[in-house]
Amino acid sequence: MDEKIKSAVAVWRDGRHEGASAVTKRLLEFWLKEDHFLKDGSQSHFCRRQ
User: Fold this and answer.
1) Rounded to two decimals, what is the model's pTM?
2) Which of 23, 28, 31, 44 is buried most deeply by CB count within 10 Å?
3) pLDDT at 1
């Protein structure tokens, strides 16, 4: 991933997703703050966060 994009995303993420709609913020909460397990018991948090 381009370093400029990674930096911009990091700033947006650290700013609590400023400018995102309420629906997008709820979706991000679902993906990033709630636990989700696969059938084998594993999680994929790193990939979701990226």
Assistant:
1) 0.60
2) 28
3) 63
Residue 17 CB neighbours (<10 A) = 14
What type of residue sits at position 31?
W
Q: Amino acid identity of 11?
A: V
* Beta carbons within 8 Å of 17's beta carbon, 6+ residues apart: 24, 25, 28
Give every CB contact of residue 43 below 8 A, 6+ residues apart in sequence.
Answer: 35, 36, 37
Q: Is the pLDDT of residue 50 over 70?
A: no
Region 32-49 average pLDDT: 74
CB 36 within 8 A of CB 43: yes
Q: How far apart are CA 28 and CA 33, in angstroms?
A: 8
